[in-house]
Amino acid sequence: MIDYQPPAVDVQPATPAPSFDQQYEQARSLANSGQPALAVAAYTTLLARSPGNADVLLGRGIAYTRLERWSEAEADLRAAAQASPEYADVWSALGDLYRWSERPDQAVEAYTRLLALQPDAPAPW
C-alpha cells in the first residue's frame, strides 16, 4: 500500500472586506487629496451599499463640483438635502455649486437656507 500525502496548501486567512466607514474615509481622502474622479467612483460604490445616504451624496456631490460636472453635483446635493433637510453642509455645498456655476440667485437661496440653520456662522455671509 502506498502512503499518499497530498501536497501542503498554504491557506491564508481571508482579508476582511473594508467596512463602510473605512470605505467612506477612503473616498473622503481621495476627494481631499485632489483626486475627485477617484472619489466619485468610491462614493458611487458606497451608494450601492447605502442608497440615499446623505453623507455619501454630499461627498459625491462635492467631488462632482470639483470636476465641474454641475448637473450630477446638483442632483446629488439636492438628493442629500431632501434626505436630510437640516444638514447645513449640504446647503453650503449647494451654495458653492451655484456660485461657481454662475447661478447667483440659486446660490443666495442655498446660503439663505444655510443661514437659517446656522445664524451665527460667518461663512454664508
Describe this structure in words.
The chain is mainly α. It has one domain (20-117): Serine Threonine Protein Phosphatase 5, Tetratricopeptide repeat (Alpha Horseshoe). Helix content is 65%, strand content 0%. The protein contains 6 helices and no strands. The protein has helices at 20-32, 36-49, 54-66, 70-83, 88-100, 104-117. Helix 2 packs antiparallel against helix 3 (54-66), helix 3 runs parallel beside helix 5 (88-100) and helix 4 runs antiparallel to helix 5 (88-100). The longest helix has 14 residues, at 36-49. The protein is elongated. The protein starts with 19 loop residues before the first helix and ends in an 8-residue tail after the last helix. The model has no long low-confidence stretch (mean pLDDT 92).
